[in-house]
Structures
1.
Amino acid sequence: MPAADQALLDLCSRLMREPARLLTAEIVPVQKGVAIPAHSHDDILQMDLAVGCAGYWTNDGKKVQPSLATAMAFYPGASHGYAIKAGSENAEICNFKLRIQRSWPAVKQRIFPPVLQNVSVHAPLHTALRRMARLNASKQQRSPLLMAALVEVLCLWPREGETSGAPRASGEVDPRLQPAVMLVDENLNDPPGIKELSSAAHLSPRHFVRAFQAQFGCTPHEYATQRRLERARQILLQGRTTITQAAEQLGFPSIHTFSRWFRRETGLSPQQFRQKPDRF
């Protein structure tokens, strides 16, 4: 198993054993401008997913201007602050903080990129973040369900250098394509066709496919397949999920259909991937 995946499993294990290390988890709508002076924490890892925001962040002395969706990790000791405002009607920041130790492998290796821009608004991640924030605000605070949601969020959090091969946009995502991208990510268990995607983008099928290939370097079908593979990999790395359950979550009618598809796309069976995920 790659060192980064081992560090992630170590982090999740520590948090499950010590739920009080989750300090906050919330989703904050961005309506008016807000500014926080630069500051740092000695033992806190803060994770932000900013969607539809404008303005800027500072992270470890570097100025960051958000894209349509930007994932940020503020590590212990890193100076950070922001001056942001809404860049779209539904602008929001998904945020959580963990009390950690600098000696932990996940922190020493910095397995989460300090800044990762042009992140696709990935439906499973967004769903897990909302579930975690809802549980954190309820009487079920620090419950096993809340910690399970936290582990899911950490497993879904985008990382550089992942071996899933999911296509990424070149430059800023064309605003016309973003609804189609979100539609794919929200329906990985039943990927939409060109007609539905082009309708979401308010383009003809021909112009939509041309614009999509120019942006992502692949066809919409190839994009959906790679995103589905990325999700399959994340599910399979969650050890308690059976391969049958993974097939069901991804919309396959049977474990056999899922296994054939996974082998065709990766050269490995789901079980072989679980045993040696670094080969994928």
2.
Amino acid sequence: MNLCPTPALDVGLVHDILESVDCNVQVYSAAGYQALTGPASPLPPALTALLTIYVALLGYRMLFAVEGTRLSQAPLIALKIGAILALTLNWSIFQTLVFNVSAQAPLEIGRVISRPMAMDGRRLAEDPIRGLQTTYDELSADAADLQRKAALTAPAGQGVVLGGNEAATVADLRHAAAALLFSTVGILAMAFIATGVLTAIGPVFIALFLFEATGGFFVGWVRALVSAILIPMVCWIGTSVLLVVLEPRIALLAQQRAAHAINLRAASAASDIVLIFAAAQSALIVAVLIIGEGFRLRRHATTAETAPVVAREVRSTVETVEARSRAEALASSLRRSSSTYARDYVAAAPAGPAGPGESEAGRGAETMPRAARLGETYRRRTTVRDRGRVGASA
């Protein structure tokens, strides 16, 4: 706790929450990583045992070519082992590649994307943290001003009684202030906590990437970390858009509050805009979670997995060839039968002219031997059992 200074009391609620959560989460994430990978932790001995088993299984598979393992895969395997050892046992590498990227990159990208929104004199969007604090204070002050105005106009000895429209407006302003706080500061703080916890336990899941059976845990950890990284970025951009839309209305409400003449319709419109953007932030979180689920790790299929596919392809090819062979054999038989019929017809036709009362076609039909049709020459083989049946019937 001494590493993170206590924020000043006049910085505001928004700055106080974000500063405290961000600082403490980063400090304890780094301390958790160092404790997990330190000499008193069981992770280094467990990682050594896992590497021993992995190298033994890898040597066995290469020696006997199990599941298509080849020596050409050795450089990639060595690179994989080196990356796992570097990320699980070296804090400086892990801090540069994982910790700093997850903690600082989202907000930096959000600032770059939302920077054009701060142009044209948009003061609230220049510093979204300060803009959130100003907007939250204004909504709360407007609700308090309406409440105080009703107290001043109430008869002596009676409680504060608000009209229907005033009561609804005060409730809307308070709900809008709470929704603004939870949909912006709350989401950012939640993302900071999730990122810190995931990075602190990262070495455990990185070590599980050694084996294919436990690689799914590593993939799930990466998906969760990607979602936790993207949430602050989209929340920062959505907050900047909200501040740009709200700035003229907040300025108008501040002028009306100074004149003690807050317009109820303007206050309700500002409250509705805040509630709409709060719903949009929830939809963005769901979209980010869906994007995080899209992470896939390419996995080489083993021989045992590809064997059924290869067998199906070979079977389909053989069936296609057999079907084509049967069709070609049928077409050849038809052509051969047709050519044989024509040859026999020409050879059997008499050479002399037809006699009186005898037509050429009739004489040809009488003297021409009929060619065997397709299938007529087939004879089923007679077995010993068939011969016995024929003898018994005779």
